[in-house]
Amino acid sequence: MTELKQILDDAAREGIMPTQTIDRLLPFLVARGVKVDMPSAVARPDAAPFSDTETPSFVRGFHDVLITIGIVVALAGLWGVASTYAVLPAIVVLAEILVRRQRLALPAVVLSLALAAWTAVMSASWVGSGFTGMNLGGSDTLQFTLAFPVVMGLFYLVYRVPLALALSMMGAAVVLLQLVLRALAWLSGDPLFELNHPAVLSIIAIVCAVGLFALAMSFDLKDPMRRTVNSDVAFWLHLGAAPALLYSVLSLPGLTGGTLSALQTMSGRTPLVVATVVALMFIGLIIDRRAFVTSGLLSLGFALYGIFRRGDASIDTYVFITLLTVGVIVLIIGTGWMPLRRFVMRRLPEGMQARLPPA
């Protein structure tokens, strides 16, 4: 029965059959004695063929896309004509129908994002209209983010959406960062500790970002063949870990105003940006995560923009040169991903190669 259910899930993932028919078809086939005689190469997950295409399981048929459009439009309209409190019951009702009963993946992702947006709006209203989010260690910011790991964690426990678990973990990392900053502010007697000690803030942020990346890798290493929900959780965690690593590293040199100031002056430190993005690309190549690489491309664009701006080219020219350069880099990495990865993997220790996705 386990093998049969796995085949039906794969068929739904490929768009061969609607996902909502699996629950009815599976007991129907089992009741009539249908069995699956799986060959040894398929019965053992570690011997199964591996696809080098990183396709998140929420990308399925256009049926999901159509329903997702309806969700977005309906929630946007409800948000505009009714109270903000009315959006939460709507999200829960839609989740009960589309996620719990019909098991639609893309609507589950959108509903998770809608719940995260609702949590942000409600948290901001509870904190007060004067909330700006600038003081990371401040009481207002802590109250604003404290709800995210709780709300998204509960949503995951009820509906088992991988994105909800990833958002809960990322929210917990932000809360942990703020708790550490508040503890340091209390010990030092400086209520603006993170603003007056930006280097310490950057180091703590790097530690949190590395921890988030390690958490993503723990899910990845549980499923190197990318066949279970662990791979989906790792996918979302990597999307959050890569920019966290990038921006925390960029906030280290020459800081005068913290991480937010570093983002505003990113183009002035283009060599560091390029080196950091290249390092992230190398890491993404090793772990076979294109999503990890993609999250740094926007920052690479800012870096190249700063490089060309220092030249004599006109503003139109260096903007288009920046776009052309980023596009060429993306095409080179995208088209040569597997040959590059095989080249890198051959130079890694055998023990590390055994734990990573095959090349």
Could you list some keywords that capture this structure?
mainly alpha; globular
What does this structure look like?
The chain has helices spanning 2-13, 22-31, 40-43, 62-81, 87-101, 105-127, 139-159, 162-188, 193-196, 198-222, 229-250, 258-264, 270-287, 290-294, 297-309, 315-335, 337-345, 350-355. It is built from 18 helices and no strands. The protein is globular, with a radius of gyration of 23 Å.
Query: Helix/strand-derived class?
Result: mainly alpha
- Count of DSSP H/I helices: 18
The major beta sheet can be summarized as: none
Order of helix and strand elements from N to C terminus: HHHHHHHHHHHHHHHHHH
Low-confidence stretches: 37-48, 254-267
Question: What percentage of the residues does DSSP assign to strands (E)?
Answer: under 5%
Overall 3D geometry? globular
Mean pLDDT: 77
Give the termini separation. Answer: 31 Å
Number of strands: 0
What helical percentage do the residues reach? over 70%
Mind telling me the C-alpha Rg? Answer: 23 Å
How would you sum up this structure in a few lines?
The chain has helices at residues 2-13, 22-31, 40-43, 62-81, 87-101, 105-127, 139-159, 162-188, 193-196, 198-222, 229-250, 258-264, 270-287, 290-294, 297-309, 315-335, 337-345, 350-355. The protein is an all-alpha fold and 359 residues long.
Topology (elements, then pairings):
Elements: H1 2-13, H2 22-31, H3 40-43, H4 62-81, H5 87-101, H6 105-127, H7 139-159, H8 162-188, H9 193-196, H10 198-222, H11 229-250, H12 258-264, H13 270-287, H14 290-294, H15 297-309, H16 315-335, H17 337-345, H18 350-355
Helix pairs in contact: 4-5, 4-6, 5-6, 6-7, 6-8, 7-8, 8-10, 8-11, 10-11, 11-13, 13-15, 15-16
